[in-house]
Amino acid sequence: MPNQFAEIILPVAVKGRFTYSIPGHLAGIVKPGVRAAVQFGSKKLYSGIICRVHDETPNLKKIRPLLEVTDPVPVANYMQLKFWSWISEYYMCTEGEVMNAAVPSAMFPEGIAALPMVEKYKPREETFIELAGKFSDEELNTILDKLKSAPRQAGLLTTYLYITGYSSGDEVVPVRKSLLLRESGSTPGIISSLEKKKIFKPVSFQVGRLKNHDNKKEPLRKLSENQTVAFESIKEHFKKKDIVLLHGVTSSGKTEIYIHLIEEQLRQGKQVLYMLPEIALTAQIILRLQKHFGTVTGVYHSRFNDQEKVEIWKKVADENPERGYRLILGVRSSVFLPYSNLGLVIVDEEHDGSYKQHDPAPRYHARDSAVILAGLHKAKTLLGSASPSIESYNNAVEGKYGLTELKERFGMIKLPEIIVANTREAYRKKLMVSHFTPELLNAMDEAFRRNEQVILFQNRRGFSPYIECPGCGWIPVCVQCAVNLTYHKSINKLVCHYCGYTSGVPSRCGNCGSPGLATRGFGTEKIEDEIKIVFPEAKAGRMDQDTTRSKNSFSKIIKAFEDHQTDILIGTQMISKGLDFENLTVVGILNADNLLNYPDFRAHERSFQLMEQVSGRAGRRKKQGRVIIQTSDPANKIIRLVLQHDYSGMYKMQAAERMTFNYPPFCRMIRINLKHKDRASLNLFADILGGDLRNMFGKRILGPEYPVISRIQLWYIKTILIKIEKEKPLAKAKTMIMEAIEKLEKEKGASGLRIAIDVDPY
Ligand code: ADP
Ligand code: ZN
Ligand code: ZN
User: Fold this and answer.
1) C-alpha pair distances (Å), 608 with each of 502, 664, 722
2) What is the mean pLDDT of the chain?
3) Pairwise CA distance, residues 67 & 107, whole Å
4) Closest CA to 557 of 280, 332, 247, 310
5) DSSP code of residue 522
6) pLDDT grade, residue 109 (50/70/90)?
7) Which of 168-172, 245-249, 516-520 has the highest mean pLDDT?
8) In the structure, what pLDDT confidence band is assigned to residue 110 with cuts at 50, 70 and 90?
């Protein structure tokens, strides 16, 4: 038999796969997808995943052996390994970095100290109580007689018999100890007494950590005529195309169409992945899905702990249709679960920026990766949005994707009426009350009178984005980052939103020493405060990063609003998407200016999408809703387009601009971020790399330059942008970029430099 070798992916940021020899005693069990332990570097032991087994003797001085194999069966399947390899190539990172993002860390000890490896995942055990023997009815009577002097023990036994319905000849049934205690009002001591008397015995079972829910299945709702046309059109497109874009206005019933498509897939024994951009959204949609599909429906997002993530992983891998998950609702990271048999991937709110991971590597886009994942499974992809990304719509226009449109809301409810409120004028005429224009105040007042609800959107959390000395204009900034500190009133602290640095509020100006610093601008926390003053009767909920740190906080805030325990929901972009509330009629966008003025080529597209999206929450069930957009620039082109709900106007305008100025989708973009703690060194290295790249790519290179935020956590930052024509070979450009970077990393003093590559950095 020839010598056998294994290539292994290790959770390290070193490029390449690593080859080890397979010792004789491991020969039969090493296969792609199993975890194994190896020595890496001089001392450290690592565990990784085998990705290839072969007999081509590698050209290396020294080949170390695999030390141990953990699994009898692969934990990652063949399709996942291929998927990781695609992500690593396309997004220019190592397979180890992809694996780190993909596999729950409890399955995966990073640096391990000793052999054998210890599994970090532990199934949860729970104690059950059962009868110590198959007692007959006579025996039980005798036992109960003897227990007359111990009435609490007798009571406990009776409760057990009552719960289980046990009688002579039955198999004994274990009952959860916690349930038995609760039902009998007993104590653990009494259970032990019965155990000592050999009447009860404890048994332990492995139980899942994941919440169980009903397996009651409601039939699907009948699609409307418009929905049926769209549903058929999607299926018709799928006959010829792998990807379809469903462009349907907010509340047109897209979700309901997804549900019908899911049903067809599940019936054919296929798995479905349904992606959403925001955890907050999964809370509402999961209920809608479980109602129809029962226990085969699972959720995946970052709020699960490591142990729970392993259990979800196992349920996705479990091909038994009774036990496993067939339908997964998840955020970005759910593309990495071990699907074996996908038939359909749905990417809802496909335009949403949260699908892109910016840090750390892999800097992947979950929508674009999902398309590749679906391709590996020969599955179809459905992208859905009320305001598609320019890229996707362009693909549809060019015929690469099928396009299905839904132009009317379900139930023929009109799209919300948009009112533009001029803040500049209101300030001048002294009509502003706190941060509310008369138009918004009026609309809220009317809504409350009719016992309806209101959403207020402000894209900043905290109380004030900064505080300032009225005398000299001094603003406290973060000691580690080039950003203003945000004032948080509830904790009375200044907080850096980039690194989390906090400090007390200075009582005097740090520059001129005068007392009385003033708060400037406003965030969600301040709006909540002001609402209490302006509408003391109204109850407000707030949803932003600060109020949603705990696992179930999303569902609690949403439920309180659904049940009308709160009248107003104030929030950041978390509340802008997909949520569906029956009684919500008024939406206020408090400051459209800071959306429109964001320095990015997508700012206009993004602000249109956001405003459309938030507006879409209003008036979804019974009657037309109202949206009040507050801005100092009512004539703004984008606001005019939102006013008309004119997506196609927005698309045409943006596409023309991007064509003229050469931006995606008409070119490809790669960004290189360089960081160094020393400013001069950063400048030096950035210039070297910039020069080298310019020699290769000429005018396609922009920069190096400082980004808007030029220092984070003591690191100075510079970026280089590369724009590559769509028809040029991308793989070749990537190789050239990697070579330039590797050359730079060998320069003297470059060890303090951090380089991150971001492909499609938008
Ligand atoms: P979208 O996903 O396009 O925003 P939804 O699917 O959430 O729209 O539908 C909007 C509203 O209309 C929801 O309240 C939903 O329950 C209701 N709805 C949609 N389709 C139907 C249908 N076929 N039968 C009954 N109600 C529906
Ligand atoms: Zn001052
Ligand atoms: Zn900071």
Assistant:
1) 34, 17, 27
2) 91
3) 18
4) 280
5) -
6) low
7) 245-249
8) low
What average pLDDT does this structure show over 89-100? 94
Burial of residue 504 (number of CB atoms within 10 Å: 0-12, 13-18, 19+)? exposed
The count of other CB atoms within 10 Å of the CB of residue 134 is 12
d(C-alpha 349, C-alpha 668), whole Å: 22
Phi, psi of 231 (to 5 degrees): -55, -45
Q: What is the pLDDT of residue 1?
A: 52
Domains of the chain in start order, with CATH, are 5-107 (3.40.1440.60), 124-207 (no CATH), 225-410 (3.40.50.300), 417-460+536-657 (3.40.50.300), 464-521 (no CATH), 667-759 (3.30.70.600)
Exposure string (b/e) for 278-296, b if CB count within 10 Å is 16 or more?
bbbbbbbbbebbbbbbbbb
Comparing CA positions, the residue from 568, 576, 578, 580 lying closest to residue 592 is: 576
Ligand closest to CA 222: 1
pLDDT tens for each residue of 258-297: 999 999 999 999 999 999 998 888 888 998 999 999 989 9
Looking at the CA of 510, name the nearest ligand.
2
The tens digit of pLDDT for each residue in 314-351 reads 999 998 878 899 999 999 999 999 999 999 999 999 99
The torsion angles phi and psi of 175, rounded to 5 degrees, stand at: -120, 135
Q: Which has the closest alpha carbon to 332: 307, 303, 302? A: 302
pLDDT value at position 370?
A: 98
698: left (phi over 0), alpha (psi -120 to 50) or beta: left
**Dihedral pair phi/psi, residue 668, rounded to 5°:** -105, 150
Q: What percent of the chain has pLDDT over 70?
A: 99
User: Which residues fall within 8 angstroms of residue 698, CB to CB, at 6 or more apart?
Assistant: none
Check if the beta carbon of residue 94 is closer than 8 Å to that of residue 15. yes
Angstrom distance (rounded) from CA 82 to CA 378 = 14
pTM of the model: 0.88
* Structural tokens at position 309: 């993530």
* Span 571-592, average pLDDT: 88
Q: Which residues line ligand 1 (CB under 6 A)?
A: 221-224, 227, 248, 250-256, 410, 580, 620-621
SS3 537: coil
Indicate the top mutation candidate among 275, 410, 613 to test ligand 1's pocket, ranked by most ligand atoms within 8 A of CB: 410
| Span from the CA of 521 to the centroid of ligand 2 (angstroms) | 18
Question: Would the pLDDT of 481 be above 90?
Answer: no
User: Which atom of ligand 1 is nearest to 406's Cα?
Assistant: 3
Task: Label residue 677 by pLDDT band (50, 70, 90).
Answer: very high
CB 342 within 8 A of CB 269: no
CB crowding 11-42: b at 16 or more within 10 Å, else e: bbeeeebbbbbbeeebeeebbbbbbbbbebee
Least confident interval from 110-119, 186-195, 611-620 = 110-119
Ligand 2 mean position to 518 CA, how many Å?
11
Q: Which atom of ligand 1 is nearest to the CA of 258?
A: 6
Asked whether the beta carbons of 687 and 473 are under 8 A apart, the reply is no
